Amino acid sequence: MELPPQVQSLVDILSSLPGVAACFCAPKPLDGFDPNQLSLPGEFGSFPHAIIMRTKGGRTNEVMIQTEVILDRSSEAWLSLEFLAWWVRDWGRSGHEIQMRPMALPPKAYEIQLGRTLKFFIEYFVIEDGDSYDNTLAVAAEMGKSIAECYEMSRDCFENPAAFTGDVEDI
What we know:
This protein is of the alpha+beta class. The chain has helices at 5-16, 49-55, 75-93, 134-159, and strands at residues 20-29, 62-71, 98-103, 119-127.
């Protein structure tokens, strides 16, 4: 499926971060979403349960931009995860309705899954003006541009990261 250019740009910049194995992005309309669907298996397992339960479903004309980021198990991936956690926090503090959260499958189903299902979602909540996705596409473009600019400004940090000293009191 071909993505709109604004979404493809966001996926491309996230995919280019060190240690990112895959990235996917899709809008998910939340208007009229029934919170009882969260207990169903399948796609609803990746929805942000706490937010949807707190609001008893989506707000009127609400769309969630859900960006899935899958990392390899390298030290570079750890740096990208820390960078993205900072970026999301910074954007949230500036008034954007955004969050980042982990998601994983059960440790064991028919076989052991623990160690291969961890991924992270960056979720942005948008209110549309109607039936279009104009605001959603504009936010996706803005996210991609901001991540790219922040990464370029922080490139030297990726090339020469601080060492973990074990001093958790200062983190």
